[in-house]
Amino acid sequence: MLKKAKLSHLRYLAIVPLLLLLNGCAKHSIWWIFNPKGVGAKASYDYMMIDVAVMLAIVGITAILIVWFMWKYQKGKNRGTYDGKWEHSRKLEVAFWGIPIVAVAFLSWAVAIHGSFAVNPYNPTIITKHMKPKGDPIQVDVIATDWQWLFIYPQFNNMAVANELVVPAHTPVFFKLTSTAVTTDFFVPQLLGMIDVMPGMRTKDALESNNLGTYQGIAADYCGAGTSWMLFKTKVVSMADFKQWAEGVENNPNTMDYAEFNRFAEPYINVKDKTPVYGHVEHGLFNHLLLEVMDGKKWPLPMFMTENMFHYLKLQAAEHRA
Amino acid sequence: MLVNVPGPWSPLLGRLALSEIPYTNPILAPLFVVIVLAGIALVAAITYYGKWGYLWKEWFTTVDHKKLGVMYIILGLVMLFRGFIDGLMMRTQQMLAVGPGDNGMKAMGAIHGYLTPFHFGQIYSAHGLIMILLAATPLLVGIMNIIVPLQIGARDMAYPYLNALGLWITAAAVFLIMISLFVGDFSHNGWFGYAPIFELAYSPGVGVDYWIWTLELVALGTTLGSINFLATVVKMRAPGMTWSRLPIFTWSAVSANIIALTSFPCLQVALALVGADRYLGTHFFTAGFGGNLMLYTNLFWLWGHPEVYFVILPAFGMISEIIPAFSEKPIFGYTAMVLATFAIAGVSWIVWLHHFFTMGMGPYVSTEFSIATMLVGIPTGVKVFNWAATMYKGRLTFSAAMLWAIGALFLLLIGGLTGMMLSIPAVNYMVHNSVFVVAHFHMMLLCIVYAVFGAVIFWFPKVFGFKLNEAWGKIMFWLFSAGTFLVFFPMFMLGFMGETRRLDWPFDPHWAVWFDVQEIGIVVYVLSVLAFLWMIYVSIRDRAHHRVGADAWGTSRSLEWLTDSPVPFYNYAMVPHINARDEAAWRREHGFSQSRPDHFAAIHMPNNTGVAVYIGALTFVIGFGLTWRIWWLTVAALILTVLIMIYRSGKGDPGYVISAEEMEKLDRESRQNMSDGQQHLPKGGGYTGGTVTAYSAAASDQRPQGTPPGNSRPLS
Question: Which chain B residue shows the shortest CA-CA distance from A76?
């Protein structure tokens, strides 16, 4: 229902430009793309700025020229001289082709080629080239279902946490990702770019952040009715805190075997933002699921599942999944 | 039953059941009542005024390219409105739903806002499909249909009956997607669909089936049209209309239709395979049993990207006609413009991968497609520079059509800037699937819409003989532009704030203020729709005061401005001889504007036929039968279609001949009918080359068209 509180924020419209400036200084910025907190996201941001600078120079000058011509050559104002037969100039045509060719050549070299390797999800040189020989990277197996995330930590007793990701700062984190249902995207706007998560396939991504904090993770590709609720908080904590947290999770008596996962993977919209933890997950679950899905295993959706969300929530409660 | 579909199925009705009709839905049920009442009123009005015969004889069965074009444009405008309503519903949902907390509308079953995911998914999918394939495409095809034969001095398209068939098959697609509102549901998976979510296991309803058959029908209609355009331009140019004198809009139509002809089969195959998965239980795009879901994405975008240029290139062509006319100068760098058009068309084939950089194909492949994508920026940049240079040293009149064309230029600049950002994989990973992408491609598609509105205003007097109201055209332009800014500037900002696409529930409360701004933008858009309707009403009411002569704007340049306004059904009483690239401007300079043919020859015209309407109706039945798996209906309609096709092929169309005497009479009448409103109009300058020949004495309709200029003798 449209609540009064909804209408009341219309009054903020007057200060939109001001908000724009203020947000730039805020500690927890809402401009996620402009405030990267991960090594990969920062690199992407830098490449974006180079690209925008080059393109804005050309586009901006063109826009100014068009406006100037509109002013100068308006009929009846006699500001400029009319030449109704001027339709060709060799010099200009060379410039018209030359300028974009030079710009594209520069951007190809400086941004497209360099950038593709620097933030290549499978081997981001921006992370791997600085890797200390001793600093052990963290491995996380990511399984997307309809519509939850399961993050498994193989180095930590194969513990797992659903719908929340906790990683240590100053440490590379390498993800292996697959889906049991349909395709979606793994995305933490302030930390790392999107990578497809596909059923029966394994993709990879990597993350390193030097900024403690909690960042929003999103299922960025539409994957059905529960997409909007398929969120996960990503907590970047210090290594000491991470170890302490991991110890707590490892000792959790709640465990997940394949049968339990089968129930977990049934279509479920995480409306209540639940983050169950599992002290131990059956070994080899990730690879087993990969093969199962390739062999045709599915968790099909019921018809009209979300035609009435209140009805759906009642079903959730009846199944003791709420 | 070839695969086990969830839910009931009966041999007689297939999956169709009363429960599939959403009569309890608080939005759809009243809408249905309104539409039914409006339909009854329309039918009653037509019956009362006895116009059924007129409609059937003059419009439904016509093969006249101008009337078909007008019907295409009406179809496109209606669907543009439907797509806009979808957009309005999505904006409203996000404005109401944003942020945590219980703000749902219980009557609609929604826990956030007023739409459930079940409905929101259908709305944005229908919005995308409608706007690209059932609004932009018919609008552009309609304008090409009217203008291309006129610009090359042809009497009609090469295959008039095929032209009608294309329209009625497209209309069948429109009916199919419209009926999905009230019978069953539509696809949830976006206009391009995803593998494997469109498989039966994840989309058990009939929505995806509606989506498949709607797309297949549009693809069929457009492919037929593209064959026709290419044949027309290659074979039916008037004498003297050499390739180097072809107007830029016709060039852009040629390049666009080459793209359409070569790329649409790709879509049809991809969708046929999706259909096989859903109907026959094959595993082309499933995750398991050896299917390859990435193959679908490749196949779709292998068509999808050329398709994007299929819609943008004619829009570029329209801008290239409007700007010179209102700058009173020839287009700057004609050859460069043509080369740039074909460069864009060519590159369109090697960039499809940039729609899914995030699939993880590795840096070598990404880089290659990234650079290929940036290459598009070169010819596009050339085009923008050339348009700017056309305005340089011109005499600019800011009429409504010119405003729309210049507006399109600015949208193209913003779209180009953001497009270059998206073409970089490193940047793309951060904004792919975010609303930043949505804002970017809306800039490009609105560039098309701006060009289309400009073109409609520009060419309206040619087709109907009177101008649209300039003042209301300008009011609509400014309202529409304000709406565009208010909706899409916040959308770019939301993209930088990390909002992803297609969120039924935008979770972050910080986004709220921007959604409110967008909603205001949508209200302004509504005002611009009203201004458009008012412009049409006022223009028709005052049409007697805005009658025009052949050269409606006084500064127009290309061939179509030589014939009478409104264009008579035979287009040109005598086929004109082309002397220059800008024939109308050239004749004006040389005092030939008023010259009329001094003798006439018999011409051959095609007969009207109802066959195209019947086949269109039957293709709708086939689509509907397939969607609901009513096999007997599908097979019956298919057999009937084939029988009609055989009957039509056997019968053929001998056409009819208008004698020279009758042509003289028709020409005299058409001329008297047209007001000579040219004296007070400005005179534009500029032309390029040519020998002095007004009408080709030798160019009668009994001879093949497209005679080289050397073969025709000057008029004495």
Answer: B395
Query: Residue B610, SS3?
Result: coil
> Is residue B640 one of the residues assigned to a domain?
yes
Does the pLDDT at position B712 exceed 50?
A: no
**Sign of the C-alpha dihedral, residues A280, A283, A286, A289?**
negative
C-alpha to C-alpha distance for B33 and B19, rounded to whole angstroms: 17
Q: Which residue has the tokens 């309890």?
A: B24
Q: Do residues B99 and B509 make contact, with C-beta atoms less than 8 angstroms apart?
A: yes
Indicate if the pLDDT at residue B179 is higher than 80: yes
Name B88's Cβ contacts closer than 8 Å, sequence gap at least 6.
Answer: B522, B525, B526
Q: Which domain holds residue B599?
A: 559-609+630-711
Q: What is the pLDDT of residues B17-39, one digit of tens each?
A: 888 888 888 888 888 899 999 99
- Say whether B14 sits in a helix, a strand or coil: strand
B286-311 pLDDT, tens digit per residue, is 999 999 999 999 999 999 999 999 99
Give the residue among B489, B486, B481 at the shortest CA–CA distance from B522.
B486
Q: Which amino acid is at A240?
A: A
Reduce the DSSP state of residue A232 to 3 states and report it. strand
Spatial distance between the Cα atoms of B28 and B22, rounded to a whole number of angstroms: 7
Domain count, chain B: 2
Which pTM value belongs to this model?
A: 0.92
Helical spans, DSSP H, in B423-434? 425-431
Determine the residue among A54, A62, A176 to mutate to test chain B binding: the one whose Cβ has the most chain B Cβ atoms within 10 Å: A62
Q: Do B388 and A310 touch (CB under 8 A)?
A: no
CA distance A167 to chain B (A): 20
Residues 6+ apart with CB under 8 A from B6: A302, A303, B200, B204
By Cβ distance, the residue of B393, B432, B512 closest to A9 is: B512
Complex ipTM:
0.91
Q: Which two tokens stand for residue B513?
A: 């203020």
Would strands B112-113 and B103-104 be described as parallel, antiparallel, or unpaired?
parallel
Domain annotation covers residue B271: yes
* Sign, Cα dihedral of A16, A22, A28, A31: positive
Q: How far apart are CA B654 and CA B605, in angstroms?
A: 9
Confidence of residue B6 (pLDDT cuts 50, 70, 90): confident
Q: What is the CATH number of the domain that holds B94?
A: 1.20.210.10
Binary contact (B377, A104; C-beta < 8 A): yes
Neighboring chain A residues of B27 at a CB cutoff of 8 Å = none
Distance, in Å, from the CA atom of A125 to the CA atom of A120, rounded to the nearest integer, reads 7
Residue B694: inside a domain, yes or no? yes
**Mutating which of B96, B326, B356, B427 best tests the A interface, going by the most A Cβ atoms within 10 A?**
B427
Q: What single DSSP character describes residue B60?
A: I
Which DSSP state fits B160?
H
Say if A112 is an interface residue toward chain B (CB within 8 Å).
yes
In a 13 Å sphere around the CA of B699, the CA atoms on its Cβ side amount to 32
Q: Are B55 and B110 found together in one domain? A: yes
**What homologous superfamily does CATH list for A130-299?**
Cupredoxins -  blue copper proteins (2.60.40.420)
